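Render this sequence as a predicted structure.
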Amino acid sequence: MPNVGAELASVPFGKMIYDMASAIARSQVALDKASISLVKVLANTTFDYVPDVVETLLPNPRPVKGLGGAPLMDKDGNPVMVTGVQVETSVGDSFPLTLLQAGINPTFYQFTNSTIEVKMSITSTQESSNTFDVGVSVTASADFLFASGSVTSHVNFSSSNKYSYSVTGSSSMATTLAPVPPPKNMMPRFFLVNAMDPAKISISQS
């Protein structure tokens, strides 16, 4: 008869934990390398940044048209005027800006919770049946001078055993990948020098 304890002991828990930890470590290294490469790409990729767009609203008087497209007159014979609005747009000169300067930060990831779940179902059934049959038969005969008889018996015995054993198992592994802020020392510092007014030059750091 198989040993249930031996079945449980045969489950390679240690190897499963090692394989999962090793896979997470390799994946973490690959993710960190990809994020570091993304920092370089963002720092070296520029686009034409438009600093400002100025919209100026100007009056735009115009006569009101009546039937047939003719100007509409008031009671004094003067054309009826309405003050419309005209928008003039002025776009500032563009200059190159990196994606990091524009505020696009790389995303770093970190593995947090990891679980391994193993399920086993062990079923063992045994059935035994015994049959015992005893029979006795008697025969007799008689005639004018004497009588005779006989007794016979039989014994039948049968035994059967049925045994079944099955083991089923399943395992699942799950891990959580969460985004984390980029390392502080990996991100560049930005210095903004406000030199629009030479008499009031200010420097801010971010």
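Summary. The first strand starts at residue 46 and ends at 49. The beta strands are 46-49, 53-63, 81-91, 95-98, 108-142, 147-180, 191-194, 202-205.
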